[in-house]
Specification:
Length: 90
């Protein structure tokens, strides 16, 4: 499991989503990952963590349909690097 305490994989929401045993999962992550304080530190783990997240849902007995969605476009601000969201993460 990921050692980053802020990773979605370590969140209560992820654990609840797995326990819920969904039939359909829509995953749209990336906007918060594009924060200037986060992306440089975690960019090398983004794909690996995303795959781990998907594999967690794939392993459920319900075998849910998984839909990956692009993160919503974001402009360049002090809090979000829009170019990361639009050009790098997809």
């Amino acid at each position: 499991m990921v050692d980053d305490k802020n990773s979605y994989l370590n969140s209560g929401q992820y654990k609840k989503a797995l326990k819920f045993a969904p039939q359909i999962v829509i995953i749209m992550l990336g906007t918060n990952d594009a924060k200037p304080t986060a992306f440089p530190l975690h960019k090398d783990n983004f794909v690996k963590d995303y795959i781990t997240l998907i594999e967690g849902f794939e392993a459920l007995p319900t075998k849910p349909k998984i839909i990956w969605a692009y993160p919503p476009a974001a402009g360049e601000t002090k809090k979000i690097k829009g170019s990361v969201v639009v050009e790098i993460l997809p």
